Amino acid sequence: MSTSLLPIDVDHRPGAPPLARVQPPAVAADWAAEHGAALRGVVAECGAVLVRGLGLRSATDVTAVFHRLAPTLMPEREAFASRHRYADGVYSSATWPANQPMCMHHELSYALEVPGLLMFACLTAPTQGGATGIADAAAVFEALPGELTARFEREGWLLTRSYTDEIGASIADAFGTGDRAAVEAYCRANAIEFAWQPDGGLRTRQRRPAVVRHPVTGRRCWFNQVAFLSEWTLDPDVREYLVDVYGADGLPFTTRFGDGEPIGEDVVALLNETYEAHTDREPWQPGDLLLVDNIHTAHSREPYTGPREVLVGMADPVRPADHVPER
């Protein structure tokens, strides 16, 4: 099936994101400026759209397209892994082992302000794997057991993090500064509990909504990183090593129910199984552009082999706390 919200067709194929094929334009940024509103219309309706044929070849091309689609790009804060910054608001995908999946999540869902729009652009496609999967967050919410979603609606979810110089994102990576006073000011302004450790490390806790209503459609969306940032999503050998070295309370990150109770491995497995049942995927091709509504749609990154270069931009800030369902 296809639609014609753009001057080209948008194909809706089972198991894959909506795909718009275009003839290579002379200047990709000019094409994006002309058709940006129509592309956003597809994203608003479908949650995502993959544009193929733009011929993006460099970070300069990508930066120009991102700025035409969203003139103001958001800086990243509270990163859980390091990124390379190509330009203001234009980053590499998060550093993560190529042989390990990045499970479904909503970008920065642990922050007070999150991007409403995500933009991904592929310059180098991997030899195998590495797709950015997507999943409808409202469909995932409806597929989960009502007792579980009701608890998360009542309590929210809790993210705990431990920052050290040895593993995971550094304090400077996460907060944009290593200055203690500036880090503390950021935490206070963003409802993050913090405690400095004797070795100079930092531990934080932040409670966030796990279910939000989409700002436009009003649909309840499963919106969090409960599964992705859980210790149970880590490779078992990696988790065992980290617990041995840092202790159960010193993991780089893990998630809990909003009341602080641990989330069992069975719950995380159920979440990941539900995501997988609702995942659409399409292998990257060089020059591809993927736009994602970050509230409507979760995204992932699958394991891969070979070089992979995907650039990311974030825009259209939203405060999830303003869209918590009434109880």
Can you characterise this structure?
With 327 residues, the protein is of the alpha+beta class. The chain has two domains: 2-136 and 281-319, Clavaminate synthase-like (Double-stranded beta-helix), CATH 3.60.130.10; 138-211 and 218-273, 4-Layer Sandwich (Double-stranded beta-helix), CATH 3.60.130. The protein has eight helices and 21 strands. The strands form five sheets. It has a nine-stranded mixed β-sheet, with helices on one face. The protein has a four-stranded antiparallel β-sheet with strand order 7-19-10-17. Strands 12-13-11-16 form a four-stranded antiparallel β-sheet. Helix 1 crosses helix 2. It is globular and about 55 Å long. 43% of the residues are buried. The mean pLDDT is 93.
In brief:
With 327 residues, this protein is an alpha+beta fold. The chain has helices at residues 28-46, 59-69, 137-143, 146-155, 171-175, 180-189, 236-246, 265-277, and strands at 2-3, 10-11, 19-21, 48-52, 85-87, 90-92, 102-105, 114-124, 128-129, 134-136, 157-163, 193-196, 202-208, 211-213, 220-222, 253-257, 279-280, 289-293, 297-301, 304-305, 309-318. GO terms for molecular function: dioxygenase activity.
